[in-house]
Sequence to fold (84 residues):
Amino acid sequence: MSAADRMRRYRERQRNGRRPLLIDVDEVAVAEFLIASGFLPPCKAEDRNAIRTAAESWIAAATLSQAFEAVRRTPRAAARLRGR
Fold:
């Protein structure tokens, strides 16, 4: 991919309000979680692109306004969000 292509993708993400997020995770634990939660088929557990897509889908579902409001309503869930 050329520098111009990367810049085009970067600008498109910015226009769409998206940002790349680089985090370190236990790849086995994440794959198992995504399989258990129904976002990743077991046959795709070794496929990094499938895991990425499933993780993006899970984050999108978890951050829908309805899901966020449901979590915010419970004191216990709010404490978990604050890391307590």
